Amino acid sequence: MGALIGIVLTALVARVGVTRSIRRQHVAQRRAQAAERLAEVGAMTGGLAHEIKNPLSTIGMNAQLLGEGLEDLPRDRAPDEQDRSRLIRRVDALRRETDRLRGILEDFLEYAGELHLDRSEADLNTAVEELADFFQPQATSAGVRLRTELAPGPMRASLDVPHLKQAALNLMLNAVQAMDTDTNGRARELILRTSRAVDLDDHPVVRLHVIDTGPGIPENARPTVFQPYFTTKSGGTGLGLPTSKRIAEAHHGRLEFHSDPAHGTEFTITIPVSDTPN
């Protein structure tokens, strides 16, 4: 009898030790993510200054040219059509660059600020259907076929649905822009897929896959795709993927990708079903 009690106590102690070890791993992981994030924010300041400098230079030059053009016009007549067109182009350039600068600042403030999630039990399939309906006109306008492949039944998890939609939308925008280039003869498709799985600790998770048929991510760019301000797109801020990754991790999940020039790119957001960090 004493031996049996000893075995039971030993098993209980071992289980407590494993639980504590897992908790320590979770704490260490969160601390590592926080340290990585502080380093990213520090590195972003130089990138932000560079990104702001370019549109500001364009704004300043066009403002100067616009002022000189107005000064050179005769005082006794209104601008002719040619002068008017030139001035309108200058004003349009100012507006575009001002909008771009505003977007850069908004993206920076959103990424650098503290992320507060308001999570509740929600159906991932429902969120994906709503997102697909919202994005359909933009996909059609870009000549991309958007379709959904949803796992059967409810896909319930603890989600901040607006933030999750934002993360997925960033991936979808990147996918559509990637398919602006040669797709090697493949149909231009954007697929939103949901699936169920278990993580390495046998905890249930739900997954959202954003799949495109584009040319894939160049191999030399893959190690840096989640770095702030890294972008291969003209006019991109380079904060879409880092923001999506941050949102996934705030859900105690992760964002991963697989890319193949022969098939395209698949980004996967994995989120645990419960509130317990995975």
Commentary on this structure:
- This protein has 278 residues and is of the alpha+beta class.
- It folds into 2 domains: 1-114; 120-272, Histidine kinase-like ATPase, C-terminal domain (Heat Shock Protein 90, 2-Layer Sandwich), CATH 3.30.565.10.
- It is 54% helix and 17% strand.
- The chain has 5 helices and 7 strands, in the order H-H-E-H-E-E-H-E-E-H-E-E.
- The protein has helices at 2-72, 81-112, 124-141, 161-178, 240-250, and strands at 120-123, 145-149, 156-159, 189-198, 204-212, 254-260, 264-272.
- The strands form 2 sheets. Strands 2-4-5-7-6 form a 5-stranded mixed sheet. It has a two-stranded antiparallel sheet with strand order 1-3.
- It starts with a helix and ends in a 6-residue tail after the last strand.
Secondary structure: elements and pairs:
Elements: H1 2-72, H2 81-112, E1 120-123, H3 124-141, E2 145-149, E3 156-159, H4 161-178, E4 189-198, E5 204-212, H5 240-250, E6 254-260, E7 264-272
Parallel strand pairs: 2-4
Antiparallel strand pairs: 1-3, 4-5, 5-7, 6-7
Helix pairs in contact: 1-2, 3-4, 4-5
